[in-house]
Specification:
By secondary structure, this protein is of the alpha+beta class. Helix content is about 25%, strand content about 35%. The chain has six helices and 15 strands. The protein has helices spanning about 85-100, 110-120, 160-180, 185-195, 240-255, 270-275; strands at about 1-5, 30-35, 40-45, 50-55, 55-65, 65-75, 105, 125-135, 150-155, 200-205, 210-220, 220-230, 260-265, 280, 285-290. It has a 15-stranded mixed beta sheet that branches. The protein starts with a strand and ends with a strand.
């Protein structure tokens, strides 16, 4: 996803996307578990845990900055072939989330067929995303004239004090780009970095200061743009275009055949950027849903 300050997007999946495109979240080491009505529940920490229902796995955790507003991450939810459990099992999920102290829940990005099932139990759509892809056998457009310097960045937990400072700077840029309701925190940033087999962060510096970044991941021959954010003072200067060009060049070197990204359907600036790089619409988009639990 790409966003400039003042143009709200989502995140993810990936993520939120990200990181499954966007966010095929890794397994959690869990504490204790119970089974109720065919739902296997494992609590990992207060208001955080894993729910298994047959072949469906979902994870819940608080959204950044909101202890009682939760994020429900459904593995494979971007795919049209995912089959959710029966309605009574889905209702059991909501009961579990209430017991964990959530007042409101937001989903990861969902395919229309998955979203329809959750609409039936009271969820409403809060964000529509367009899903774009690019075949990597297409030539890249000519790169814009450099407005700064681009370099790769290595951030892996546990972070050093210097890495922590850089991470917080990136998260500040992300918050200014996506807003308080859709920005990443340290946990979701880490999830974006671990969602695919290989991940790269590229940053753009102008006068020694980071003004934008892109997170790109690769699994097998598929690549995913996990996040693209630019500081508001560096908007419309070619920063996003140069970061995307650098990421696609790296993807080419990894011998990927396709790259996928999502962005908000009304984010015309982002869609225009991706169109310039020969991205096109996939067969379906994605939806982010929310539901009150109180």
């Amino acid at each position: 996803m790409v966003c400039w300050a003042g143009q709200r997007v989502k995140a993810r999946q990936p993520t939120a996307g990200n990181g499954a495109p966007f966010f095929p979240y890794p397994h959690w080491s869990c504490g204790w578990g119970t089974t109720v009505s065919g739902v296997k529940v494992v609590q990992h920490a207060p208001r955080s845990g894993v729910i298994w229902s047959g072949t469906t796995t979902v994870r819940a955790r608080p959204l950044p900055g909101s202890a009682h507003h939760g994020l429900l991450l459904i593995t494979g939810s971007h795919g049209s072939d995912l089959s959710l459990p029966a309605t009574d099992i889905l209702v059991d999920w909501l009961d579990t989330l209430r017991e964990w102290g959530y007042h409101r829940i937001r989903t990861s990005a969902l395919s229309p067929s998955v979203a329809d099932r959750l609409h039936d139990i009271g969820f409403t759509t809060v964000q529509d995303l367009v899903l774009l892809h690019r075949e990597m056998n297409l030539p890249l457009p000519v790169a814009h004239e450099n407005v700064g310097s681009i370099s790769s960045l290595r951030l892996r937990a546990p972070y050093s004090l210097l890495q922590k400072s850089v991470l917080h700077h990136l998260l500040d840029i992300d918050r200014m780009s996506f807003g308080d309701n859709w920005c990443m925190d340290e946990k979701s940033f880490h999830e974006a970095l671990t969602a695919t087999h290989k991940t790269k962060i590229f940053v753009m510096k102008i006068n020694g200061e980071i003004v934008g970044f892109i997170i790109v991941g690769v699994t097998s021959t598929n690549a995913f743009i996990q996040r693209l954010a630019v500081h508001p003072d560096a908007r419309r200067t070619g920063v996003a275009s140069q970061l995307l060009h650098t990421a696609l060049t790296w993807i080419q070197k990894k011998h990927c055949t396709r790259v996928v990204v999502n962005t908000e359907i009304l984010n015309h600036a982002a869609i225009s950027l991706y169109s310039h790089f020969d991205f096109s619409n996939m067969e379906h988009g994605l939806e982010v849903l929310e539901r009150e639990l109180t």
